[in-house]
Amino acid sequence: MWKVKIIGAGSIGNHLAHASRQMGWHVDMCDVDKEALRRTKEEIYPARYGHWDDAITLYEADEAPRKGYDLVVVGTPPDSHIALARDAVAGGARSVLIEKPACPPDLGGAQALFEEAAAANCRAFVGYNHTVSPSAQKMLGTVQSGELGGIETLDVEFREYWGGIFAAHPWLSGPADSYLGYWNRGGGAAGEHSHAINMWQCIARSAGAGRIREVSATLEYVRDGEVDYDSICAAQFRTEQDMIGRAVQDVITKPTRKWARAQCAGGFAEWICDSEAGKDSLVMADKTLQSETLAFPKTRPDDFLAEVKHILAAVEDPTMDSPLALHYGLDTMLVVAATHLSAQNRCSVAIDYTKGYVPDALGLMK
What we know:
Layout: E1 3-7, H1 11-22, E2 26-31, H2 34-49, E3 56-60, E4 71-74, H3 81-90, E5 95-98, H4 110-119, E6 123-126, H5 134-145, E7 151-159, H6 163-168, H7 188-192, H8 195-206, E8 212-223, E9 228-239, E10 244-250, E11 257-264, E12 267-276, E13 279-286, E14 291-297, H9 300-316, H10 326-345, E15 348-351, E16 362-365
Parallel strand pairs: 1-2, 1-4, 2-3, 4-5, 5-6, 7-10
Antiparallel strand pairs: 7-11, 8-9, 8-15, 9-10, 11-12, 12-13, 13-14, 15-16
Helix pairs in contact: 1-2, 1-9, 3-4, 8-10
């Protein structure tokens, strides 16, 4: 039985605590805020799952055990992720899962975490769990197989009004009350909805198109003297194999649109998250446009159960190439950082992966 430590008793912490308990694992949850622990036990967890699970042990952060865990989940604001993950690695964790985004756009400590996790033989992951859903896995397999021909272009959108986030965190009155209202803390559309960039990268890898090497982005910033975040992030990419495409993320669209389309030489594959309540869909068509739609029933807890099952499989098989792997999540952060740099300098940005996960890996193209 795995022993799991969850740092952060917010919405994500509760989701992953429940998923871990579904696996029969021992769960310790901690938070710096005693009130957050009370909310978890008396409000969030019972409201979502019917009752509190007495097998979960709650700790104030400075009283929680540091060592002896198979998995440490970092479910705190992004500007605390790297330090907490490095501490978990130093404490001997067998694996670490960091909620997305992995860090703020300044990439502070990202390269150090990458090196330390590798040296400690600690499998580290970033929680872009859409990529391991059954529907996305089917799309990735279809693109990789080449059955629709070579990929020609790729579009991904995660456009979602962030009112749902505040509904899940009723103790927040708006973006100013957390990192969400500050792009340089990892909030805003580019950071919070970076699932789109990550999914774009994942599909491009499956298609053999390589990594994103060039970014050109336009962002709409909201600055009112209190908050400073991007409400829309629209980015165009060019890969190492010269495939071009785009990703759009925002925090304003209602109803939500989470969607990806790979246009191939012999047809297309289109992934639709939450196409209907309780269902994802995958539409595939050949060059005659004869299409087939596959349905993937799911519940919200299923998203996180798939994530922890995937992590278990990846830890038990060190050769497994996981789309949640830390280096892929940090590749996403290089692109997120590049979108801000591009928008603020009104020019394209080149990414040099040989320099590591540092700001110097990004260069202005003028």
